[in-house]
Design goal:
Layout: H1 13-23, E1 31-36, E2 41-44, H2 46-56, E3 63-65, E4 72-77, H3 79-92, E5 97-105, E6 108-115, H4 124-127, E7 139-147, E8 150-159, E9 164-172, H5 177-186, E10 190-194, H6 200-211, E11 215-219, H7 229-236, H8 246-249, H9 252-265, E12 278-281, H10 292-298
Parallel strand pairs: 1-5, 7-10, 9-12, 10-11
Antiparallel strand pairs: 1-2, 2-4, 3-4, 5-6, 7-8, 8-9
Length: 310
């Protein structure tokens, strides 16, 4: 819980320019936008109310910019609290994307950095400076194929802390109970999906991620292609012997999910990752199957707003 103290939001021309800028941006309750004022950060609109309630634990810090019906809520926060919120949103709590904007001059603002649970590189200094830093989030890629005979789900996940990549594919029902159980079991903070039409099946598929608290992101369907996967795995996995992972590569859907995962996380871009990872076929039946509601009922995972949070 943050103390009810910190910088005061100045209602100057710079703040007003932020309000004008935010009004032009698309609304997305999964994105929290911060404006870097050098001495402090500013958040505007629904983001400001969210920060006040969840981190300051009071709305008394909220200041309104403007007057009457057009007044917009705003909150100022120092760098220490920004780092706390950043850590919570993309690592500990997950389910959110963070964007930081900087002054571009002439009362304009530009996106300078962004992060999600699967893309933390631009905030390494803030996130990995502390020795009590939580483990890096598990990230997943998943693809749904709907056939006359039923639904087939392919997925892959990477655990950077243990250097493990798992992949599998399986038949599922039209409510995606097996997929939900797998998401609960693996616990990703972000899941990458191919950018596809919003069919009823695809909407239900995404709903599973929302119930499980995983941020859904999109990539081009072509990123799930396996053309260069064998060569990429030779560089990434220990020993470089792809034949050891033939049981994954022979499953086209699972292999495609691995390819998307490598592309999204840019694992090959960092040479420190080369020859470090292990790839294995994931056994979805190796643990008790629970859905998101059962996990919440058992209180086995941390929920935002838990009275034990500090």
């Amino acid at each position: 819980m943050a103390e009810n103290s910190g910088p005061v939001l100045e209602q100057d021309e710079k703040t007003k320019s932020i309000v004008t800028f935010v009004r032009k941006l698309p609304e997305d309750d999964k994105v929290v936008r911060f404006f870097d004022r050098k001495e402090y950060y500013t958040v505007i609109g629904e983001n400001a109310l969210f920060v006040a309630r969840e981190f300051y634990k009071t709305t008394t810090v909220v200041k309104y910019i403007g007057s009457g019906d057009k007044a917009v809520p705003g909150v100022a926060l120092n760098r220490s609290l920004f780092q706390t919120i950043l850590r919570d949103l993309v690592i500990e709590g997950g389910g959110h994307m963070v964007e930081v904007y900087e002054d571009a001059g002439s009362q304009s603002w530009k996106l300078s950095r962004k992060a999600s649970p699967g893309k933390l590189g631009e905030f390494e200094e803030e996130l990995f400076r502390s020795s009590d830093m939580a483990e890096t989030p598990v990230v997943m890629a998943a693809k749904l194929v709907v056939r006359e005979s039923g639904c087939v789900v392919s997925l892959a996940y990477v655990n950077h802390s243990t250097r493990q990549i798992g992949a599998c594919e399986f038949a599922d029902d039209d409510q995606f109970c097996a997929f939900e159980a797998a998401v609960v079991q693996i616990g990703p903070k972000e899941c990458v999906l191919p950018r596809e039409a919003a069919t009823p099946e695809n909407r239900r598929f995404r709903d599973v991620l929302d119930r499980c608290g995983a941020l859904a992101s999109e990539m081009k369907p072509s990123e799930f292609g396996t053309k260069d996967l064998s060569d990429n795995l030779r560089r990434l996995v220990k020993g470089g012997n792809v034949e050891h992972y033939r049981e994954v590569l022979e499953r086209e859907g699972a292999a495609g999910a691995v390819a998307a995962l490598l592309s999204f996380g840019e694992l090959l871009a960092d040479r420190a990752n080369h020859n470090k990872y292990v790839l294995a076929l994931h056994d979805t039946g190796a643990a008790m199957r629970l859905d998101a509601a059962a996990v919440r009922a058992l209180n086995v995972t941390r929920q935002r707003g838990d009275p034990n949070d500090s």
